[in-house]
Amino acid sequence: MGTKSKDYLIEFNKLYMGSNQFEFKLNDAFFAQIEGSIINKAEAVVTLELTKTETMYELHFTLTGTVGQKCDNCLDDIDIPLEDEFYLLMKISENEDYSDDEIVYVTKNILEYDLTQYLYESFVLSIPPRNVCEMAEKKCNPELVSKINNFESDDKDGNQTNPMWDKLKGIFNNN
After folding, report:
1. CA-based nearest residue to 19, from 43, 52, 42
2. CA-CA distance, 125 to 122, in Å (whole number)?
3. Residue 62: exposure state from Cβ atoms within 10 A (0-12, 13-18, ≥19)
4. What's the chain's Rg over C-alpha atoms?
5. Residue 121: closest CA among 56, 36, 58
6. CA neighbor of 89 nearest in space, from 117, 54, 58, 115
7. What is the pTM of this model?
8. Would the pLDDT of 45 be above 50?
9. Which of 117, 118, 60, 57 is nearest to 93 (CA)?
């Protein structure tokens, strides 16, 4: 992970009992600071409602924005819209423990918590597994779609085949 950024720190000693509001910008500069980041282009805002009680902190994140991806069909650059919500529970404990995915245990003495890695991982998990132009309200590259359709129709009809594949088919028939 990159260096700590004060922009993504929660300072526990400055929190009020009850609801606390934060806003974080996740843009190209944010992702550039993260070592090994798979995101090159993004523009998003994460709002955080942090509720502080005597024994815990409840964090409710809401993400809205876009991420630059390649269309899985035509490989054009597209901006995929993102909307997601995620939660984190931080309990005050005798010992710090970050091994649980859903609950972070912190001591009373902890002064701050860096959300950079959590925000990065949550953003990445918000990206759909399949990205196509229609998601960005675009149409796929018509030239490439035409070539793909021609290739598919040749295979389905069996009218035109690739001579290399014909030779390979003969291997199994020569026993």
Report:
1. 52
2. 5
3. middle
4. 24
5. 36
6. 58
7. 0.79
8. yes
9. 57
